[in-house]
Write a structure and sequence with these properties.
5-stranded mixed β-sheet, alpha/beta, 2 domains, Rossmann fold, 5-stranded parallel β-sheet
Length: about 350
């Protein structure tokens, strides 16, 4: 593919219409985020840590920032159907920018920040991304050479301001400033853009690992993501009183869908600092919901066991006893599920 000529992606056939389960059910990610502010207003919808303190973002502020990002993208030439590559560790700006793309009608392309430069180049070129949103200047320097080959990229936007010069690109703060100025001139712009997004349109292109060749771009529509979110909602007893600690990569659809689930249910979401800080963050936040993969729980258990052993045989014996009691409870309460999980 010519990197300067993005692919035109059209659905092969119209997806069968799905009847809403409830009158107020969202049908697009735009409606999911709008509904958060309407149905679940709270002062701490999103929370991130800075300078040793947890900083809250209210539901209203979240929606306002999403609108500014959407207008900012429009101000630099992003139009309906354009691709925006998103390469960063998970952080609150990741979710805000993801939502901003949905409101602007752009398809975002998540890229794992751990990928090697040639893999990043392939995904950017194959997707035809016109904008690259990146974590910081350090990552930019790592990718500087391959970015010269990504001719479709017109703008680079940085989450962190440190070290960024006007020659490098825009910071997210500058993009939001542009968006604010544009919406002052055109108050209905963001709403007009958001209303152009429909359920059967693409929302994102997520690339596979490429273990059987070059990565393949999986095209997911608004309906793909939202129907999964809504149809599974009844299987969980989540509510506004819950809170969640988010630690998995948002570039993976599992945590991204979990994030939409948290917001859909009106939870407060705390963005973990890193995998290494899970323990301290759990103790600080006391979340009622924690989504992980087996390896994370294995590492937590190994750390607990190591700390118990360091405090003496009695502590280790108490831990082993507590785990054995837990396993018995799983057997008694969950029957076959206990055996399925090896308990």
């Amino acid at each position: 593919m010519n990197a300067a000529s993005p692919k035109t992606i059209e659905p092969k056939a119209e997806a069968p219409s799905r009847a809403p389960l409830a009158a107020a059910e969202p049908t697009t990610l735009v409606e999911v985020f709008e509904r958060v502010a309407q149905a679940h207003p709270k002062p701490n919808t999103l929370n991130y840590k800075k300078g040793g303190q947890w900083i809250p973002i209210s539901s209203d502020e979240m929606l306002a920032r999403i609108g500014r990002i959407a207008a900012g993208l429009y101000s630099i030439g992003v139009r309906h159907g354009d691709r925006v590559a998103l390469l960063s560790e998970s952080r609150v700006e990741w979710t805000l920018t993801d939502a901003g793309c949905q409101f602007a009608g752009a398809f975002d392309v998540p890229i794992y920040p751990t990928l090697m430069p040639p893999q990043v180049r392939y995904i950017i070129q194959d997707s035809g991304a016109r904008v690259l949103v990146i974590n910081n200047h350090e990552k930019f320097l790592q990718l500087q050479e391959i970015l010269k080959e990504c001719r479709a990229i017109e703008h680079i936007i940085f989450f962190d301001e440190s070290g960024v010069t006007p020659a490098d690109g825009l910071t997210l703060a500058e993009l939001e400033k542009r968006g604010r100025a544009l919406t002052e001139q055109q108050p209905d712009l963001v709403d007009d853009l958001a209303r152009q997004t429909h359920r059967d349109e693409l929302a994102t292109i997520i690339y596979t690992s490429g273990t059987t060749g070059e990565p393949k771009g999986v095209m997911l529509t608004q309906a793909n993501l939202v129907s999964n979110l809504v149809d599974s909602a009844g299987h969980f007893s989540f509510g506004q009183a819950d809170s969640a600690l988010s630690v998995l990569p948002l570039s993976h659809v599992f945590e991204r869908t979990a994030m939409y689930m948290y917001l859909h249910h009106g939870m407060a979401v705390y963005f973990g600092e890193s995998i290494d800080q899970i323990g301290p963050n759990l103790r600080e936040v006391h979340p009622t919901i924690f989504v992980g993969v087996p390896r994370i729980f294995e590492k937590i258990y190994a750390r607990v066991k190591e700390n118990s052993a360091a405090k003496g045989k009695l502590n280790l014996a108490m831990l082993n006893w507590a785990v054995s009691v837990g396993r018995e409870q799983v057997r008694d309460g969950a029957g076959l599920w206990g055996d399925a999980f090896g308990c």
